[in-house]
Amino acid sequence: MQERIVRLEGVSNFRDYGGYPARGGARMKSGVLYRSANHSKASDADLDAIAALGIGVVVDLRRRGERERDPSRRHHTFAGVVIDNDIGDTPDDPWLVFVGASDLSIESFRGHGLGYYRDAPFEERHIDLYSRYFRALAETDRAVLIHCAAGKDRTGLLAALTHHLVGVHPDDIMADYLLTNAAINYELVVPIVTEMLTARAGRTPDPEAVRVAMGVHADYLETSFKVIRDAHGDLDAYLERALGVDAALRKRIENRLLA
User: Fold this and answer.
1) Which of 67, 86, 126, 142 has the most other CB atoms within 10 Å of its CB?
2) Per-residue pLDDT tens over the stretch 96-144
3) From CA 245, how far away is CA 94, in angstroms rounded?
4) CATH number of the domain enclosing 148
5) Contact of 100 with 110, CB cutoff 8 Å
6) Residue 208: which region, alpha, beta or left (left: phi > 0; alpha: psi -120 to 50)?
7) CB under 8 Å, gap of 24 or more: what pairs does 93-102 form?
8) Cβ neighbours, 10 Å, residue 254
9) What pTM did the predictor assign?
10) Is residue 54 part of a domain?
11) Whose CA is closest to 196, among 205, 208, 187?
12) Residue 258 lies in a domain
């Protein structure tokens, strides 16, 4: 699993989420699907390394305020498509609103995470972004990169849905999701997040609480999958009814991603 991680200087949690065994004895292609945290602190060397991957579609899952606060750096040769939206924008970032009212404890971060994953599959902005991502998978012949702020929640759910679509085993889906905990550059991220939390909440969080906040946990993804099944019956029905991934689109995506 560690070989999937692309170690960069200023971009955390960058990795290939292809290459897994899939339905019917097929295997996902490597080198066509990437995921990461945001690229606002990418070094010039990082940009060169990312450019070499041949990425033609970037799906930026962040809200407008996040994109404006931490604008993405991209290589000067990048001429691909960027997918984002401003649906449901509010003056205050929901994460920062939570932080301002939180005691910054491990328990508060865990509780917030579970609540987030209960709601995330049904947010209008996610449905729009996820739908456009799946259409892009079927249309592009270049590599695709998905990212949010930390590359773990919005990004993690979308990667897991992609894995399910092509028939990756649930154990591998969860293993890829949890790989965030090894792929995050904590030396880079923890000081940045600690400074942000301190400024917002007026008190400094314990470093272990910050690590919990920046990591992922199996029950987060399990919660999203459960609420999807409760609402739609199964994940395939959600993909079709909510995200528009009908049989024809699904087949095109499988043809694109599987070898």
Assistant:
1) 126
2) 889 888 899 999 999 999 999 999 999 999 999 999 999 999 999 999 9
3) 29
4) 3.90.190.10
5) no
6) alpha
7) 93/63, 93/65, 93/66, 96/200, 99/196, 99/197, 99/200, 99/201, 100/200, 100/201, 102/201
8) 19
9) 0.95
10) yes
11) 205
12) no
Task: Decide if 102 is inside a domain.
Answer: yes
Distance, in Å, from the CA atom of 187 to the CA atom of 153, rounded to the nearest integer, reads 20
256 found inside a domain: no
3-state secondary structure the chain: CHHHECCCCCCCCCEECCCCECHHHCEECCCCEEEECCCCCCCHHHHHHHHCCCEEEEEECCCHHHHHHCCCCCCCCCCCEEECCCCCCCCCCHHHHHHHHCCCCHHHHHHHHHHHHHHHHHCHHHHHHHHHHHHHHHHCCCEEEEECCCCCCHHHHHHHHHHHHCCCCHHHHHHHHHCHHHHCCHHHHHHHHHHHHHHHHCCCCCHHHHHHHHCCCHHHHHHHHHHHHHHHCCHHHHHHHCCCCCHHHHHHHHHHHEC
Sequence-distant (≥ 6) Cβ neighbours of residue 214 within 8 angstroms: 150, 152, 184, 186, 189, 190, 193
Question: Per residue in 106-123, is it b (16+ CB within 10 Å) or e — as a string?
Answer: eebbbebbeebbeebbee
The total of structural domains in the chain comes to: 1
Report which of 241, 252, 45 is spatially closest to residue 130, judged by C-alpha positions.
Answer: 241
Tokens of 65: 């305020």
17-42 residue pLDDT tens? 999 999 999 999 999 999 999 999 99
